[in-house]
Amino acid sequence: MGGRLTRVFRTFNVESRARREISKEKPTPAPWHPSTRMDTLHGHPEIKEEIYRKDERLLSLLKEVYVESRDPPTQVKAGGGEQLPCKVEEKRLTKLGQLEGLDVNKVPKGKISIVEALTILNNHKLHPQTWTAEKIAVEYSLELKEVNSLLEFFIPFVVQEFPKETKKAI
């Protein structure tokens, strides 16, 4: 709807507006500075000659110039050279118990595997007095702040089985 309305205003009286614009007098350009005008050279033919003349001395010097470019040879060190220092991560063995075959065996310090995370959450849920955040942080080489966040925001799933008589009530 809006497109049709704007098109009507845009095309209203187009021909007369175009004729009016075409019939307008063209604006005169600003005058050139006298030093930039080419007709001033007509009175001085020596200047015109100087512009178009080739300078043989400069041309011969230009012909003598030869540029040759080569890449420098690459030098390969014959082993045992300086090596960049690499970051060595300390790793610790995981504490998996009976789920050892399900997960990785070594984890960097300050991190835990998925199976360990589920074990920590389950232990804390079942025995919160023995598995406190401080004990978990010391046991698994974690920061206390991260352990508190883990225990606060992640909750393991609980499987509940309802007795048959309550299923009918649901």
Automatic annotation (TrEMBL):
Looking at the Swiss-Prot or TrEMBL record, what is one Pfam family this protein matches?
Answer: UPF0240
From the UniProt entry, list the residue stretches annotated as the region Disordered: 18-42
Q: Which InterPro entries match?
A: NDUFAF4
Q: What are the Basic and acidic residues biased-composition ranges?
A: 18-27
Task: List this protein's GO terms for biological process.
Answer: mitochondrial respiratory chain complex I assembly
Any one annotated GO CC term: mitochondrion
Similarity remark? Belongs to the NDUFAF4 family.
Xref: PANTHER family: NADH DEHYDROGENASE [UBIQUINONE] 1 ALPHA SUBCOMPLEX ASSEMBLY FACTOR 4, UPF0240 PROTEIN
Q: How does it assemble?
A: Binds calmodulin. Interacts with NDUFAF3.
Q: Know the name of this protein?
A: NADH dehydrogenase [ubiquinone] 1 alpha subcomplex assembly factor 4
Which species is this record about? Upupa epops (Eurasian hoopoe)
